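Hey, quick one: can you model this chain's 3D structure?
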Amino acid sequence: MGVPIEGEPVQIHSYKHNGHIHRVWEETTVLKGSEKLVIGANDRTLVTESDGRTWITREPAICYFHSQYWFNVIGMIREDGIYYYCNLSSPFVFDGEAVKYIDYDLDIKVYPDMTFNLLDEDEYERHRREMNYPEVIDQILKRNVDKLVQMIRQRSGPFAADFIDIWYERYLTYRR
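Sure thing. Here's the predicted structure for all 176 residues.
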């Protein structure tokens, strides 16, 4: 597994458990790249869905991927504050082309006041049956939901008070 180069653009590829592509973000600037952690940023980037439909993100976002956690976090910078979208997923890999992970359907949306909702439990259950998620994956994901909730409540990691601001400032230096 390679390490993405800081300041360079990479794609982000999301897959489903069955190996099919789910979604591709065309360009994200690497702000920190190591074997354990990738922090990236994008703004108005093209996203392609598995069915070929495309859309463009609406606001700047800081993306957090960790090799030890079964989730990734996107902090979206909006007029009324920072919203976080957390995907329960496999740990990331970087193959020189893209940051890649398996999306496991469950999501947590966190609002600027740090309240949050667990989303898509029905989709998770349906895909768990259809794609035969192993029991061990189910257990890992449930533990990582708990870890994510703990991080949100403690405002640690990507949820720390100044995390998004610091990385967004770094992103702006690459855009100048």
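One thing worth noting: The first strand starts at residue 9 and ends at 15.
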